[in-house]
Amino acid sequence: MLPLERRDGGSVEPPLPQAVGYAVVVGIGFLIAFVMVFVTYILKRTVGEDNKTTEMFMTANRSVGTGLTSSAVISSWLWSTAMLGSTLVGYNFGVAGPFWFAAGCSPMIVFFAVLGIACKMRIPEAHTLLEIVRIRYGKVGHIVWIALCLINNIIAVANMLLGASAAISALTGMHVIAATFLLPVGVILYTFVGGIKATFLTDYFHTFVITIIICFFTIQTFLVPEIGSPAGLYELIVEAGRTYPVAGNQDGSYLTMTSKNAILFGIIHVLANFGLVIMDTGFFAKAFSAAPEAVVPGYIVGGIAYFAIPWCLGTLMSFAALGLEGTARFPTFPSRMSTTEVSNGLVLPYAAVAIAGRGGAAAVLLIIFMAVTSTISAQVIAVSSIITFDIYRQYFNREATDRDVIRWSHIGVVIFGLFSAAFSTALYYGKVDLGWTLYMLGVLTCPGIFPTVFTILWKRQSKAAAVVSPLLGMATGIAVWIGSAHALYGEVSVASTGQTLPCVYGTTASALSPGLYSVVITLFNPSNYKWEEFRSERLAFDQPATTTASEKFASHTELASTYQEDKVRLKHWGTIAGAWALATFIGHWVLWPLPMYGSGYIFGQGFFEAWIILSIVWVWGTMFVAGFFPIIDGWKQLKAVYKGLRSSEKPEATSSGTDTPSGA
């Protein structure tokens, strides 16, 4: 094993042997892949879900139920960086860090329900966001959005792999580059075979296991004699605040929401996450895959349940690290963690080792592996859809058959899996780490927020505004980011561009300026787009095994002519989604944190205990939503699979309608 070198000249011996790292990354990766391939075969045999058809491979026949949608939504944001990053900011800023991390995710996940149901209502045959853009704005707008979405997906995957590889290396001594290249391998295999349904099922399995381990940590933390109880943890954190006061926090305490740096991080995080969600074609793919009645409740339940994971895990494990750092239990004892170790996301692995020894290290290794592979799967299928539908089908083969599209879907899965590993390797050797990408990614992911939302919800946005505003917004954001770094720190480097203030200014400019540009440009020549025109172009592939040509045409004609009926049917879901999105944002960003920030309140022991207990109860509820809700909601299809296994009759292939039982 290779010990990790530290700036103080010492080293931290990995708690697990290299063989364990390879066993998990390669062995378990391939095991899960083969299990998912087998499950895909079972679903084809028992309920006719044939992944050799495009509609099944890319959209799961638009029939995924509420339970599995909720689990997939949690998984989509259960990045390795969510767990590593929330503990990082908790260690740096105290209780405010994990709270703002969680508040930077849940509101926009719930808001996405508004966009998802609007897409279901206006363009039910879509496979990707980019198809919507192309129909409304033509070739130029389409190409601009292809670039924006690919940038978003590339930055997202690099962020995941950098943090996960560093943590796996710290835990096992496995070389960072080996982890970077091996992590996507199993993902490529099961996504190649199973498509988005395999992604949903893997999301479910991984998220269930991860939430079980998180719940284990909520118990194990208080079994450590030095901690013992929430009250014991409180005493340790009070002492840590006296010994190592936090700059910018009220009285230097870790136990206050009055933290200047934490709220600046929160601003970066909420804007960057709006960009990551709205410009991530994977989120749209999952919305298109969900049954119409499952989109809104699935995203609302998933978004609210997700909040507890970075809040609870980030608070508990960062405070365990702060409390135990001065004891022989901690891996870096007698020294504190270096800034490099913290920035590489090693607070969580080290805290797990401190509270549970080698078992804690193994648990963190497993959840990081499962989180990164699950989210990479979603990113891979998203980029594959862009390569297939928006590049190959649109610009290289307009007459592409179902078989052609499936072949290019497979090619896209492999290409992006390999590219993501290579790009992350380049960043690693460029001395870029998790902390840098966590702060700056919003500069590149945010320019499309307002133009995309306006594309789906505002019929007045003009083509010129849609094309020009995100490009101007990105140029503005990058200029402000780099200019601020030079003005404040005298240089443009990885170090200066990763500082808080340049990233705040750059992300804010990148996110908000396109909204202004779009409105101003639109005022000169506003559009008046008719939403029903989205249905005039045929997008969905029919399945020739079960329908005739005339039936296929009739199906599309019916969809094109039922806009008003669907609008009435789905409008109430849009109202519910809008109300929940507004309530979630106000609750998480105004009513809960701002009075505590403004008052300068420092947690007393009773309040801290209530804070910790509420977060633990919430995360156990999240475990129920992620693990048991899909089983309850999908019980009908589970019974259908069981009956299919007992029957010797071969089922008919599933069509692209809504006859498939929704759920699992």
Q: Care to describe what's here?
A:
By secondary structure, this protein is mainly alpha-helical. 75% of the residues lie in helices and 1% in strands. The protein is built from 27 helices and two strands. The chain has helices at 18-47, 54-59, 66-77, 80-93, 96-103, 106-122, 129-172, 176-220, 230-243, 260-278, 281-289, 292-306, 308-324, 339-343, 347-396, 402-429, 434-445, 449-457, 463-489, 494-497, 500-524, 549-561, 563-591, 593-599, 605-627, 629-633, 635-646; strands at residues 4-5, 11-12. A hairpin with a 5-residue loop joins strand 1 (4-5) and strand 2. Helix 8 crosses helix 25. Residues 1-10, 544-554 and 653-664 have low confidence and may be disordered.
Characterize the main sheet.
2 strands, antiparallel
Broad shape: globular
Report, as a whole number of angstroms, the end-to-end distance.
Answer: 42 Å
How many DSSP-defined strands? Answer: 2
Strand order in the largest sheet: 1-2
- Uncertain runs with pLDDT below 50, 5 residues or more? 1-10, 544-554, 653-664
How much strand content do the residues show? under 5%
CATH class of the domain at 16-53 and 71-223 and 275-430 and 610-646: Mainly Alpha
How big is the Rg? 24 Å
CATH topology of the domain at 16-53 and 71-223 and 275-430 and 610-646: Amino acid/polyamine transporter I
Mean pLDDT across every amino acid position: 83
Percentage of residues assigned to helices: over 70%
Total helical elements: 27
- Helix and strand sequence: EEHHHHHHHHHHHHHHHHHHHHHHHHHHH
Architecture (CATH level 2) name of the domain at 16-53 and 71-223 and 275-430 and 610-646: Up-down Bundle
Going by helix content, strand content and strand pairing, the class is mainly alpha
Main location: membrane
Pfam families: SSF
Subcellular location: Membrane
GO molecular function, one term: urea transmembrane transporter activity
